[in-house]
Amino acid sequence: MTTETTEGVRVEVLKTWVPASWLADPDGGGLDHSWLGDAAAHLAGGGSVTFALRGDDAEPTSTELIVRAKAALAAVTTLLKERHALPADAYVEVDEESYGTPTAPEGRSRFLLPHQDGAHSSFLTPRAVNDRHGITETRVYSNTVFFKRPSHKMYQGFLITRPGKFPGETYYYDLIAMLHDAYARRTGHPPRDAVELELFLGDNIARSLELADVHRSRYLTVGSLLGSEHPAHHVLPSGPRAESELWPEQYASIPDIWRQVEACPCGLCEGPGARLMCHGVTATLGLSWPQTRARYEAAVTGERGDLLIGNNLTQKHAAFSARDRQICPVCVVVDTPVGPEYEAWLDQQWTQGFDRVGGAR
């Protein structure tokens, strides 16, 4: 689900307070489970869901919150399979609790640039029938380093077990809406159907793969996905943090990248990563990074015990938080993103996504 305003198209966020009765007995009969159906439908429709899991407890332990998060997402996953074409082999993956948020040196906070979790092998692709580059044979962008796990994350999320010194914010961006607008700017007309957008995306991914030895990034950037041909816009700094410096090899392989790192089109962005982002979206959307945020960004402030979930393929997400925040990643994944069931789910995402942003508006 998205919300279209005069400023643009944004991901719609639903907050769900999980009933204390369900938390006490998830398998109990006679309980009102309508919230589960609403959450599954919202996720399937392109929205993001925040599950409040504290219940009636004043201070549930982190261990208890993680148990609740896994149970709630498992219940939603079952409904996504039964009602919304999620592949039968999808499952809930719970990672280790993260103690401390990685930050740039001396930083007390950090801004994570728009990305997809596990994006070495988790990113939006065309349907196999519309793939003219062989991308869908593996759906792998980089297989040299796996930070966490090699699974294909279809829905990404995290449980906040400790907010930190100040409330953090998570930001969501509708990638299909951004692709739509980048395509229209590139061609001078909106795409006629989702297939045109898929072909456009496939060409952009293939270009980034061809430039891999130059940009040396393990994740696709917003600039690369939206069609920039400049290798600097395919560079994603470590983290991927707005504040992070680039690797020496990236400076060496892209001689003029330092100009883009030192100054951006709007003159307002702080940090090498943020300035590169500004150049990338200016080239593809005709908007500065602050203007891009104003047009597409949906913000969520997370509290302790909140589980935030969104589509990891049709959305990009970013975050701003304190370095002492603790989270536990909780995702819905498949091990291998191939086969008729995955393609049927992906077909639904493209069709609904194109309709959500107004089609050939």
Compute the number of strand runs.
Answer: 13
Strand percentage: 15-25%
Instruction: Please give the alpha-carbon distance between the first and last residues.
Output: 17 Å
State the low-pLDDT regions, or none.
Answer: none
The overall pLDDT average reads: 89
Helix-strand string: EEEHHEHEEEEEHHHHHHHHEEEEH
What proportion of the residues is helical, as a percent range?
Answer: 25-40%
As an assembly, this protein is: single chain
User: So what's the overall shape?
Assistant: globular
Radius of gyration: 20 Å
Query: What structural class results from the helix and strand content?
Result: alpha+beta
Count helical runs: 12
Q: How many separate domains make up the residues?
A: 1
Largest sheet: 7 strands, mixed
Structural overview:
- The structure is a single chain.
- With 361 residues, this protein is an alpha+beta fold.
- It has one domain (2-356).
- 35% of the residues lie in helices and 21% in strands.
- The chain contains twelve helices and 13 strands.
- A hairpin with a 2-residue loop joins strand 1 (2-5) and strand 2 (8-11).
- Helix 2 (34-44) packs across helix 3.
- The model has no long low-confidence stretch (mean pLDDT 89).
